[in-house]
């Protein structure tokens, strides 16, 4: 049994290593384009919604803490606490998505969506459009991962409530947690690249 | 509160403090050092998440190798790409 749990954990780490590369393509594009058009990227970053972005970072960090606490509760065999902590984690994920939706709608109103309504009067117009193309690509893929995470965490929460787990077996809680932390990890790096870049100038 | 729970609480507190720190520092005019500071703090947050929340600190060596493989391919992707982009004359091309 410990060997089975270890194999499952190792499997999700392999998956997460491939996920790193899934995001890396766009991160590399960001790095290259930021180097090519520093002024345009700084100007584009300054137009992002820093208040929502910062609150959302705090929300996601907190959701990772409740998730880690949930794994701890599973180890200790606290069934109700486990179910409630998983529910709290999923709820924080929903808060993140709701705020992200508000942000997207503001950006739509400000004509910042490439392919739909992008327009800018800045001399760096093209670099700003490239930035927002990557912004919607990266945050959209991240939001998709988070949505999948919320569904999985919710399913695991229901199973936990129905006493599917015990201190001897809680592998689904553990590997769901690893996936959730990975999604948080991606956001930890997106936050400075999207929101903090260029704040000190201009 | 058990020791493990105390560690989780401290990790969360550390993450939130680092978030406040990186937000504040991003408004200081440090020139090209701004992005270095921001990414260093992001890496510190990442280490906390990976070691404590993802329990890598208490995982067997094989898990370390698998986690390290992800970083290794990432380093290859960026390293080899920037041997070109960081050294190419006339990048970006001027119209």
Features:
heterodimer; A: 202 residues; Four Helix Bundle (Hemerythrin (Met), subunit A); B: 95 residues; mainly alpha; 2 domains; 3 helices
In whole angstroms, the N-to-C terminal distance of chain A is 58 Å
User: How far apart are the first and last residues' alpha carbons of chain B, in Å?
Assistant: 64 Å
Number of strands of chain A: 0
CATH class of chain A: Mainly Alpha
Global geometry of chain A: elongated
| Interface with most residues | A-B, 46 and 49 residues
Number of strands of chain B: 0
Q: What's the number of structural domains of chain B?
A: 2
- Class derived from helix and strand content of chain A: mainly alpha
What is the arithmetic mean of pLDDT of chain A?
Answer: 95
Round the Cα radius of gyration of chain B to an integer and report it: 18 Å
Strand percentage of chain B:
under 5%
Q: What's the architecture of chain A, going by CATH?
A: Up-down Bundle
Enumerate how many helices of chain B there are, as a single number: 3
Rounded mean pLDDT score of chain B: 92
Helices and strands in order, then pairings?
The complex is a heterodimer of chains A (202) and B (95).
Chain A: H1 2-36, H2 38-46, H3 50-76, H4 79-109, H5 125-161, H6 171-196
Helix pairs in contact in A: 1-2, 1-5, 1-6, 2-5, 3-4, 3-6, 4-5, 5-6
Chain B: H1 3-25, H2 33-53, H3 61-85
Outline the structure in words.
The complex is a heterodimer of chains A (202) and B (95). With 202 residues, chain A is mainly alpha-helical. Chain A is built from six helices and no strands. Chain A has one domain (2-195): Cytochrome c oxidase, subunit III, four-helix bundle (Four Helix Bundle (Hemerythrin (Met), subunit A)), CATH 1.20.120.80. Chain A has helices at 2-36, 38-46, 50-76, 79-109, 125-161, 171-196. The longest helix of chain A has 37 residues, at 125-161. Chain A starts with a helix and ends in a 6-residue tail after the last helix. The mean pLDDT of chain A is 95. Chain B contains three helices and no strands. In chain B, α1 runs antiparallel to α2 (33-53). Chain B is mostly helical. Chain B has two domains: 1-58; 60-95.
């Amino acid at each position: 049994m410990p060997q089975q749990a270890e194999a499952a954990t190792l499997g999700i780490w392999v998956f997460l290593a491939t996920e790193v590369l899934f995001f890396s393509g766009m991160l590399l594009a960001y790095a290259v384009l930021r180097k090519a058009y520093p002024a345009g990227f700084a100007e584009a970053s300054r137009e992002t919604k820093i208040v929502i972005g910062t609150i959302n970072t705090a929300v996601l960090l907190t959701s990772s803490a409740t998730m880690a606490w949930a794994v701890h509760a599973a180890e200790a065999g606290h069934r109700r606490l486990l179910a409630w902590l998983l529910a709290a984690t999923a709820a924080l994920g929903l808060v993140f998505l709701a705020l992200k939706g508000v942000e997207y709608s503001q950006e739509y109103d400000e004509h910042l969506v490439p392919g739909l309504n992008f327009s800018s009067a800045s001399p760096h117009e093209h670099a700003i459009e490239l930035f927002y193309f990557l912004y919607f690509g990266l945050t959209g893929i991240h939001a998709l991962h988070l949505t999948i995470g919320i569904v999985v965490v919710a399913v695991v929460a229901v199973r936990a409530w129905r006493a599917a787990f015990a201190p001897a077996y809680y592998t689904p809680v553990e590997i769901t947690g690893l996936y959730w932390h990975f999604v948080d990890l991606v956001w930890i790096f997106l936050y400075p690249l999207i929101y903090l870049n260029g704040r000190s100038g201009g | 509160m058990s020791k493990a729970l105390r560690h989780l609480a401290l990790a969360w507190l550390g993450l939130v403090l680092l978030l406040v720190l990186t937000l504040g520092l991003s408004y200081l005019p440090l020139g090209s050092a701004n992005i270095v500071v921001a990414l260093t703090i992001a890496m510190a947050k990442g280490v906390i998440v990976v070691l404590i929340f993802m329990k890598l600190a208490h995982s067997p060596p094989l898990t370390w190798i698998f986690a390290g493989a992800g970083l290794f391919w990432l380093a290859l992707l960026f390293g080899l790409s920037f041997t070109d982009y960081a050294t190419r004359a006339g990048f970006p091309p001027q119209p």
